[in-house]
Amino acid sequence: MKYKKSVYRSLAMVTQLGFCVLTPVFLGIFAGSYLDSRYGTHLTLVFLILGVLGGGRGAYAMAKRLIDQDAKEARIEKEEHWKKALSDGEGGVDRPKTKSRIFKPESEHNQKGEMS
After folding, report:
1. How much is the pTM?
2. How far apart, in whole angstroms, are the C-alpha atoms of residue 106 and residue 113?
């Protein structure tokens, strides 16, 4: 099930990334051409460059946010795994070692031997 989740997430990311980059570019071209036709200036190229820069910044911010989110989810998943492992007794780190009923230290053997 996790595989399908990652595929859909990747598809959504690619779509968002495309819109994030193309929207400022098209808005820059539209604004530049509107100002050119209205006031007779030559600002289309300037607004196109601003749109490309804005799209790049938006793509960078979105990619960084997604990478941070994935790292946070991985950290949470790892913490949950360790909590589960410790609660199930796999790790045994939080419990002291119990004394063996089979193996007796030599000091106890000597004490019993001396008494006999």
Report:
1. 0.64
2. 10
Q: Which two tokens stand for residue 58?
A: 């938006």
Based on C-alpha coordinates, what's the Rg of the chain? 33
Other C-beta atoms within 10 Å of 28: how many? 23
Rounded Cα–Cα distance for residues 3 and 91 (Å): 29
Q: What gap in Å lies between CA 5 and CA 11, rounded to an integer?
A: 10
| Residue type, position 6, single letter | S
Measured in degrees and rounded to the nearest 5, phi and psi for residue 97 equal: -75, 135
Residues sharing a CB contact under 8 Å with residue 21, sequence separation 6 or more, in sequence order: 55, 56, 58, 59
Tens-digit pLDDT profile for residues 20-48: 999 999 999 999 999 999 999 999 999 99
